[in-house]
Specification:
Length: about 230
Amino acid sequence: MTRFVGRILRLALAIAIAAPLVVLALMGVWRVAPPISTLMLFRYLTGQKVEREYVPLARIAPALTAAVLMSEDARFCRHSGVDWDALGEVLDNADEEGPARGASTIAMQVAKNLFLWPSRSVVRKGIEIPLALALGALWPKRRIIEVYLNIAEWGPNGEFGAQAAARADFGKDASALSLHEAALMATALPNPLKRLPARPKPGHLRLAQRIAGRVGQSAPWLDCLAR
C-alpha cells in the first residue's frame, strides 16, 4: 500500500512539473502558429462539425475588433492580462457555485479557450488567472486579440472565429463587415448558440446599438493595437 501511494505521489509530482512546461511550450508555438481551442478539439474528436478559417488581424474589419473589445474588455490596453479591480468585485460577490459573472478579460478567455474547460467555477478562474498573466507577458496585444477572434465559438453550427461567423451570418468576409454587423457579432459572443447576428432579437439589437456607439469613441482605448 505504501509503495502504491508513493507511485501515485510521484506521478502527481511529475504531472505538476510537466503541465506548466507543456503549457509554456504551447504558448510559444501558438504565438506564431494558428491554435485550436479545447472546444474545437473536442468537436473534432467526437466527429462534430467545425468551421474555422484562421485570418490575421489585418484581414478582420477594425470595427469588429473595436466592437469586441468595447463589449468584452474595454480596458484591454490598460492591463497585463487581468483586470484586478473588476475581478475583485466579481469574486467578492461569488457564492458557493462560483461567480455569477465572469469579469474575464480577453487574455483570460484565450487562456480558457486554449487550455481549460468551459464550466463556471472559482477553481477554473484560479487557474485561468496565471495563464492569462503568462499570455500577457509572452504575447503582444495584437496577437492576443487576433487569436481570440479566431478561436471564439461564434454560432450554433460549429462556427469558430470571425471569418466563419461573418460568412455564415452575412455572406461576406470578416474584412468587409460594417459597424452594425460587427456590433451584432460582438454582442453575440456571450451566448453564441442563441444570439444570432443575422436574426437579432430586440434585446440583442439594442445591445448592439449601444456597442456601436461606444466604438465611435474607442480609439483612445485601443492605442496598444496600433502598428
